[in-house]
Design goal:
Blueprint (H helix, E strand, L loop, with lengths): L1 E4 L3 E4 L3 E2 L5 H14 L3 E3 L7 H11 L7 E6 L6 H15 L4 E6 L8 H13 L3 E7 L3 H8 L4 E7 L7 H10 L2 E5 L11 H10 L3 H10 L4 E3 L6 H8 L8 H14 L15
Parallel strand pairs: 3-4, 4-5, 5-6, 6-7, 7-8, 8-9, 9-10
Antiparallel strand pairs: 1-2
């Protein structure tokens, strides 16, 4: 199952997040995910695990053209020359000639956005990234970024305890994808009474209900992270059932009430911008 934007550009709706995975644990997790059928992998220069991700990809034997690999340029590398250097270093570590998606990891207030986005566009034009985009960009900054490059995706924290209505509207306006990281709110969704109630009704886990709510939205992909093989298996099993419209709405209303933001470092942007 894919998200389709720009007519026929696709990204798998469910992928594997690799933040905080390192060394042999990262290699083993990515290897297990690929063997189970995952084809969307998310990493970043900042994660320090691109080498392990690349090694797992090569060991898997999965053809490169069957994979969708995302990596990111850290915000302190947002100047044009550093964007180019970061992209090249990521490709070396991953052991691939291109990534499917290259993102600016966070907005960088010390560098004009036009400079960074122009550099990302040129990386794409050089064939080193099939698509480019941003991560952790609020609606207004996303619109500005799209003025300087063909933004394919905004990767943001999104889960049933944090609404992203403005960004979803902007994604629809700009014809791009929203990729949800921390889609299970680091386990908090499992403690929400509504999610437990829906899980009982559908015969699923709260995590599966949360992931289904995300991927059932037209422009949304999700990248849960787990090192446990049973969880990797369970996360894939969200495409054989459908949430009723009323239940989709109820979860959306929960997200609007709770507004639980877990990723908000001191260098984060003004989320209302």
């Amino acid at each position: 199952m894919d998200v389709t934007v720009r007519g026929d550009e696709r990204i798998p709706r469910l992928g594997l997040g690799t933040g905080e995975l390192r060394g042999d644990a990262c290699f083993a997790t990515v290897s297990a995910a690929l063997s189970l059928g995952y084809r969307h992998l998310d990493t970043a220069a900042f994660y320090g695990n691109e080498g392990e991700v690349g090694r797992a990809v090569r060991a898997s034997g999965v053809p490169r053209d069957e994979l969708f690999i995302t990596t990111k340029v850290w915000w302190t590398d947002a100047a044009a020359d550093r964007v180019y250097a970061s992209a090249d270093a990521s490709l070396r570590r991953l052991g691939t000639e291109y990534v499917d998606l290259l993102l600016l990891h966070w907005p960088a207030p010390h560098v004009p956005l036009a400079e960074t986005m122009t550099a990302l566009r040129r990386v794409r034009e050089a064939g080193k990234a099939r698509q480019v985009g941003v991560s952790n960009f609020p609606s207004g900054l996303l619109l500005e970024a799209a003025r300087h490059a063909p933004v394919f995706c905004d990767q943001v924290e999104y889960h049933p305890l944090l609404a992203q209505e403005e960004l979803l509207d902007r994604a629809n306006e700009l014809d791009l994808c929203l990729t949800a990281y921390s889609p299970l709110a680091q386990g908090a969704v499992a403690r929400a009474p509504l999610m437990r109630s829906l899980a009982d009704r559908y015969g699923r886990s709260p995590a599966q209900i949360a992931l289904r709510w995300l991927v059932q939205q037209p422009r949304v992909a999700a990248i849960p992270r787990s090192t446990a093989v049973p969880h990797l298996v369970a996360n894939l099993k969200v495409f054989d059932f459908v949430l009723a419209d009323d239940d989709m709405k109820a979860i959306g209303e929960l997200a609007q009430r709770r507004s639980l933001r877990l990723s908000d470092p001191e260098f984060a942007p003004d989320w209302t911008r």
